[in-house]
Design a protein that fits this description.
Length: 259
């Protein structure tokens, strides 16, 4: 079985079970690398390289690559910027419209490559760098403002809470895990909300004490997060207050710092 693959479409659903009716647990973006663990005629069980996430997807949405292409980390450094117009032109002249934070494998001199296939890059890619994280993170987060909430989503047209912070961090040179509960295990603990800074992540739990929500702190009293849509709300020691609903919607558990 061919093991190493890359996502060949702009966005592809990763499902819980091998069925078109199954719940979408995450998405692959163009250029995301995966290992195929199991394969049926249509479906394959994959594990993502960037966050070790497992799920089922349609095999037709993947392109086979060699282990050498898969493992060459420096060749997968360039990504699409936080803008709408990220267009690739395929060899046959057709266009691909990519989401922000998609990877451009083997990018060089205006072209990127999926296996042997060559694509013309019609925009200026970015090389994410965490050195100016604080200066750039707010603008990146606000690019996604008003994006609709979508369970498992990772794009401007549908994103979940952990997918949102993962995308913002990726565009600023930091790799996060996929789910809020996994992300909460990363980073350094911030003792008090009053000490929270721009770019810190706040995590929220449910009645059972399980972390189910995450947002990005804009200051120690303001947060941007995906709930219904990507929105900015006030936050205090109790949690996030939604003025539209006139109540607290998420109970604060911990704050973590990554830079």
């Amino acid at each position: 079985m061919e093991v190493y693959h890359v996502c060949r479409v702009a966005v592809a659903p990763i499902r819980k079970e091998p069925s078109d009716r199954s719940e979408i647990v995450s998405q692959l973006l163009f250029g995301d690398r995966v290992e195929v663990l199991e394969k049926t005629e249509k479906w394959c069980l994959i594990k993502t390289l960037h966050d070790n996430y497992e799920g089922w997807m349609d095999y037709k949405q993947l392109e086979k690559i060699s282990h050498l292409q898969f493992a060459k980390e420096k060749s997968h450094a360039y990504v699409t910027p936080a803008q709408l117009n990220n267009t690739l032109i395929a060899k046959d002249g057709s266009a691909y419209y990519l989401s922000a934070g998609s990877t451009l494998p083997f990018y060089q001199d205006g072209f990127c490559y999926l296996g042997d296939e060559k694509f013309e890059v019609k925009f200026t890619p970015v090389l994410p760098d965490k050195t100016n994280f604080k200066a750039k993170v707010e603008k990146t987060a606000q690019f996604f403002e008003n994006s609709p909430y979508l369970w498992g989503g990772r794009t401007l047209f549908g994103i979940d809470c952990s997918g949102f912070v993962q995308a913002v961090y990726k565009l600023n040179g930091l790799q996060l895990k996929r789910d809020a509960s996994q992300q909460a295990e990363q980073g350094k603990l911030v003792d008090f909300l009053a000490s929270a800074q721009l770019g810190d992540l706040a995590f929220f739990d449910n009645e059972d004490g399980k972390i189910t929500h995450v947002g990005l702190m804009l200051s120690n009293d303001k947060i941007i997060h995906a709930a219904g849509k990507v929105r900015i709300d006030p936050i205090d020691d109790q949690g996030i207050y939604n003025a539209e609903l006139g109540r607290y919607t998420h109970k604060l558990r911990i704050i973590k710092r990554f830079v």
